[in-house]
Amino acid sequence: MSLDFLADDTSAQPSQGTGVPWKVLIVDDVKDVHDTTRLALQQLTFESRGLQFLHAYSAEEARGLFEEHADIAVALVDVVMETEDAGLVLVQWLRETHGNNLVRIILRTGQPGYAPEAEVIDRYEIDDYKDKTELSHTKLTTALICAFRGYRQLEALERNRHGLERLINSLKTLYSRQALDEFANAILQQLSALLDVELDGMVCVVDQSRGSQQSLNRVLAAGGALESYTGRLIDELPDQECADLIRRCIEQGETLWERTGMALALITGAGTQGAVFLKAPPERIAEDDANQLLRLFTMNASVAYDNATLFEEVHTLAFTDPATGLPSFSAFCKSFETARDEERPLMLGLFDVYRSREIAHGLGEERTERMMQKIGERLATELEEVITVARRESDEFAILFELDADLDPHELIARIDEIFHEPIELDDASLMVRGRLGLARQGIDGDDPRELARYAAIALNELRRQGHGRAKLFQPELQAIASERLRLASMLTRTSGETETRMVFHPVVDTQSGVTTAAEALIRFIGPDGTPLRTDKMIDAAEANGMIVEIGAWVLREAMRQHVMVMDSGSPHRLNVNLSPAQIHTPRIYVDIEKGLSESGLDPALLNIEVTENLFLDNDDETLALLRWLRERGARIYIDDFGTGYSSLSYLGKLPVDGLKIDRSFVMNMDEDTEAAAVVGSVIAIGAKLGMDVVAEGVETEEQRRLLTDLGANKLQGFLFTKPCPAEELRQFLGGRQL
After folding, report:
1. pLDDT by residue (tens digit) across 107-123?
2. What structural domains and CATH numbers belong to the chain?
3. I want to staple 129 with a disulfide (CB 3.0 to 4.6 A). Which of 107, 280, 424, 624 is the partner?
């Protein structure tokens, strides 16, 4: 039987070659991938044969090319095209329907989460699977040369099928073994069957040094009496002649023969990765056919080893968070599906760590990741109802609870608080952990883990938006609200029509004299059709999609510019500007304020900054530092909508605050609601005791004005005096209105 196709390979040269070119089919829906691949490989030759490229931009187009060209050697196939599994469906058609088992398939994807299962690799004889991001020119060339070898070899094997039947079965077995330990055992078993030698004394060794100066040649599998040495270094093998032969085989990168046996080098694109030792005397395999079979087996075993290594790495990347070692969200989903199939009562939670940005700035990246690892481990081990915990975002954990759907979410967050009663110890840092919890219920809200995670995220985002509350269950109406926010947010982008923003001002008057002491700058949104849009809804939408910082910066600049224009009339009133938490928590806030002051020429001593009381929930140093900096520049700080959020009156005097604005909901009802009147009176009294300015919002009637005057409010604001108006109308108001 002739096996001359196994003659030594010629190396790839930058030439078009002289022989019939290899046909390479590129199947990908992205043109740049075609161009890049062709440019990278157009100078490649293998065995004096250049390359002829065929191009398909869909699986359907590829089917036509396979039917037209029976001699395609290699197909580079994208996994995700028209559908998430278009590439795999194409390969299935090629093997099962079209009956082509010769063409070599190299799967490529830019989405590692769509890696094919080992069973798919085995069934459709896929040679390789590569992530596009890791395909350098060298790796792509190496993969293609290996594929050409495979095609050439299988083409010859087809002609010699009967004589090589055992070899083909052996190779298929190797390619089906994706775990390295399974692969190593398969090598020994198939070599034993192929050469009719005993398993006893056979050893598969892998080089695990990975650039280390120290030798780490470890036994991955062994047969017979040596089986107990699996996992140990080869230095521990009882036969040191055998160990020395294996060591030299790996170092020299070639198959070595001696009287004790032979060591076959496993050589991949990354170099020599290991060796297989068998106690077969040289004369046992001296016959040409056996020798050629062995060479072919070793060559393909090397490729199969590279494949198994790649899949193990992909599996690790897919199911482990690389920074913390915690399960990834993909692993979390598998655990969820297992528990769901066991009909266990499940609840999916997303736990968001408070002050993570400030903590990261203080600890640095490496220590922050260690802290997140400790948080995840504590959640996983100290709550008995937890099935698994996964890292989902930088400061967010997915938690799978085995809990009934009627559990009170506040009870659950209380249990989490208990396990973090003791701080996280990290070197010289001791950190208290608190957070928010969004929840979705399996069965009630859905059965798919990714869908439930999205619902839990909606609940969590609602907690963030509200600025208070620790735990929330998903409700269907939250999704409708989120969808509406997205619709409104799209109206803020240029692609969906021009939404106009305008500036209006709402005066604040002195209770006793009626003189205007300040004007609050407010933004208004006008739709493309000229219809006014609800300001509170648009602000919510801007906060949800991250545009609030840009909008807030515009408000600062425009309010200061227009205020100075109105001040030209000689009015000494101050300017009130609202800052959102998102603005305050971005480093650019200092630049935005300085830019507004510089461009407008406004004296910062005429600036009042309004913030919500929930801003002080975490009492973080960055927020307090900004407010102190503003006060040092002469600005005053007011807590807006006071009484609706944080409301820690005992701590109020310690904050860098100059005044309070009583929320309109209390003021509007105080002439009919004694409890509302009592709240207003208490806030005014506390403000007076702390030496703070107290402004009552929402004054609409003379009776409300009288009551507030009697209670001692310093300043009033509301429709009783005027509605919010543009700068020019404000100028007229200031010039002609005395109260």
Report:
1. 887 766 666 667 777 77
2. 1-160 (3.40.50.2300), 196-319 (3.30.450.40), 329-474 (3.30.70.270), 488-736 (3.20.20.450)
3. 107
